[in-house]
Amino acid sequence: MRSLVQRVLNIRLRPSPQADIGAAKVKRTLPLRMGAKMDKQCRKCGSDDLVKASLVHEAGTSGVESVTVGAGMGGGGLGVGAAKSSGVSQSLLAKRTAPPAADNNSLSGCLGVVFVLSVAALYWSWPGWVWIIGIVITVAATVPFLMQENERHQAALKKYERKWLCRRCGTISDLGR
Prior knowledge:
The chain is an alpha+beta fold. It is built from five helices and eight strands.
């Protein structure tokens, strides 16, 4: 049985799903190829070797989990330890092509006001109904801001879906669908 490294390094060409099997010449692509020739062109260099930014981001981002267990013996006796960590590993290109982050400023502000109201209610011994009215007013005032932030984020995501990366010059352009 071949090792994983041998299998990865021995990549064979195979027909793409779009190949016309009946044609005399079958178009072939590498299985790991991310982009495909198309009618869109890079605005900087004119290349048609483009790939969607969202695909580049997804391909360059991976989850990482690590578990470590150890034991040791010293002058003080036997020691055992264990640790688990997890995170996200991302290439620089994946960071460059990342989708827009959602703003949570209004939600954070709302939670901050609720926290301050809670502390003030406890400190000054406000009646419960004062605290509840304060929270209802805070939430009611925050909802329109949350809706605006959501609309802005949805618009930014739509714009992000039109982004393409040129694999020749590295330019990220808004080329539409």
